[in-house]
Specification:
Strand order of the largest sheet: 3-2-1-14-15-9
Radius of gyration: 26 Å
Structural class: alpha/beta
Number of helices: 17
CATH superfamily of one domain: Isoleucyl-tRNA Synthetase, Domain 1
Strand content: 15-25%
CATH class of one domain: Mainly Alpha
CATH topology of one domain: Isoleucyl-tRNA Synthetase, Domain 1
Bound molecules: zinc ion
Number of strands: 20
Distance between the termini: 43 Å
Oligomer: single chain
Largest sheet: 6 strands, parallel
Helix content: 40-55%
Length: about 500
């Protein structure tokens, strides 16, 4: 049994969850469930990133204290993981002074003792939207390109982290895939960014930013939130006390992040770990953004899509399906209710739902609702088709192409529907041997579809077993007859 430690990034708490957060949670959940099925011992961590000026400003707008405000938003994210079936093991909160802060202090001291922190005067442009210093090249007409706001000109004393000391080492690790960055174009982008990387600000004076973790031994400074938030991947598994969980699971096997925060995870984070003498993450998967009806989500347009509403309206699995199938794991994708309904009807209702109904109807009609399988009836053609699907599916998941993995599952479903059309079980009812072969093949395909869907659509997978009357998730398929329990898997929209 191997250990498998996976993290999603920690959503920032200045605003409630939107559909983009749900996408990342779901992607991480698929990899989590997949690894559990492989028999690995899995730990899945997420949480909320709660410090920084942006949170304070958002709290002021709602006339709440920062803590009160982030408590509410954080609870919303946690609730989202529950309703979307996200099987997390730990939800970290960066305002947790008992577990998170001691880990942050421990890392800070390691960096300091290693001579990797120094104080210097800093002059730069700070964008609150980014919660980061930005470069002049990121401005247009004096405004931050992404946030359309004017950055503050800041001149202050900061602690700096000697990123430059580690950049050559990180460059080599990434080139050699010791830190594997997927997709490859993100790896190349990182390699370009590393070349221009300079030492980074590691603290800000308390007067500029009070909502955060104080620098140990220098309470006039607050640890820069980016450095501090990254440490949640350590604090959440017990780094402060070096617990058994920490010893077992560190380092992360996969860390999933959005493209906007890639640089922090692929450059600054490994540098911090090298400085602290800790093992590095094995891979970092970078996903794109979701637009809504082709437009960037924004409060001004009013198209920020609430994942709670969607799950309530359509159910968890249909939403999981759309986000995992329609949106490339690698690229930007689009949410549109129209496209969702089209996909739902075509793939879930007409393809998968229909296949289940057809097989169940045949068992009812020709076997009085109870059918016994035997391995000797499985055709070589079907065996090979199933094995080939698993091969492509496993490869796709290993390469963070979740949409391709699902495409393969649904092409097997389509194959089975064609198989029924071609073999016309209703026309061979007079030939029990032939009919047994056709029906066994169909059951074998359906069981495999349900197994393949487990990490992606856990509820649907269980429903298929239930409708087929498959015991122990179909693992006893040769021992007991299938007593079908017909019902509609996906009613048409
Ligand atoms: Zn900005």
């Amino acid at each position: 049994m191997n250990k498998f430690y996976i993290t999603s990034s920690l959503p920032y708490t200045n605003a409630p969850a939107h559909i983009g957060h749900l996408l990342e949670f779901i992607q991480a959940d698929v990899l989590t469930r997949y690894n559990r099925l492989l028999g690995n011992e899995v730990f899945f961590l997420t949480g909320t990133d709660e410090h920084g000026r942006k949170n304070v400003q958002a709290a002021e707008k709602k006339e709440k204290s920062p803590q009160e405000f982030v408590n509410e938003i954080s609870a919303g994210f946690k609730e989202l993981t529950k309703i979307a079936g996200i099987s997390i093991d730990k939800f970290v909160r960066t305002t947790d002074q008992f577990n998170h802060w001691p880990a942050v202090h421990k890392i800070w001291k390691k960096l300091r003792d290693n001579g990797d922190l120094y104080k210097a005067e800093y002059e730069g442009l700070y964008c609150i939207g980014h919660e980061a210093f930005i470069k002049k090249s990121e401005l247009k007409d004096g405004l931050c390109l992404e946030h359309q706001t004017e950055p503050e000109k800041i001149k202050e004393e900061n602690y700096f982290f000697k990123l430059s000391k580690y950049k050559n080492q990180i460059e080599k690790l990434i080139q050699e895939d010791k830190i594997k960055i997927l997709p490859v174009h993100r790896k190349n982008e990182t390699l370009k960014l590393i070349k221009d990387s300079e030492d980074v600000s590691a603290s800000r004076p308390k007067e500029s930013i009070s909502w955060g973790v104080p620098v140990p031994g220098d309470s006039g400074h607050i640890i820069y939130i980016w450095l501090e938030a990254l440490i949640s991947y350590l604090s959440g598994i017990g780094y402060a006390d070096e617990t058994e969980v920490f010893k077992k699971f560190w380092p992360p096997d996969i860390q999933i992040v959005g493209k906007d925060i890639m640089r922090f995870h692929t450059i600054i984070w490994p540098a911090m770990l090298l400085a602290a003498g800790l093992e590095l993450p094995k891979s970092i998967y970078v996903h794109g953004f979701i637009t809504v009806d082709g437009q960037k989500m924004s409060k001004t347009i009013g198209n920020v899509t609430d994942p709670f509403d969607l799950v309530k309206k359509y159910g968890v699995d249909p939403i999981r399906y759309y986000l995992l199938r329609e949106i490339s794991s690698y690229e930007d994708g689009d949410w549109s209710e129209k496209k969702f309904e089209a996909r739902y009807n075509a793939d879930l209702a007409n393809n998968l739902g229909n296949l289940v109904s057809r097989v169940v109807a045949l068992i009812e009609k020709f076997f009085n609702g109870s059918f016994s399988c035997s391995r000797r009836f499985v055709s070589k053609e079907i065996d090979e088709k199933v094995i080939d699907t698993w091969k492509k599916y496993n490869q796709s998941i290993d390469n963070f192409k979740l949409h391709i993995a699902l495409e393969n599952v649904f092409s097997l479903v389509g194959f089975a529907n064609l198989y029924i059309d071609e073999h016309k079980p209703w026309a061979i009812s007079g030939n029990p041997e032939k009919l047994n072969i056709v029906m066994t093949n169909l059951i074998v395909i359906l069981l495999n579809v349900a197994w393949l869907l487990k990490p992606f659509l856990p509820e649907t997978s269980s429903n298929i077993f239930e409708i087929l009357g498959a015991d122990k998730d179909g693992k006893s398929w040769e021992e007991k007859p299938f007593q079908v329990r017909p019902r509609i898997l996906f009613p048409k929209i």
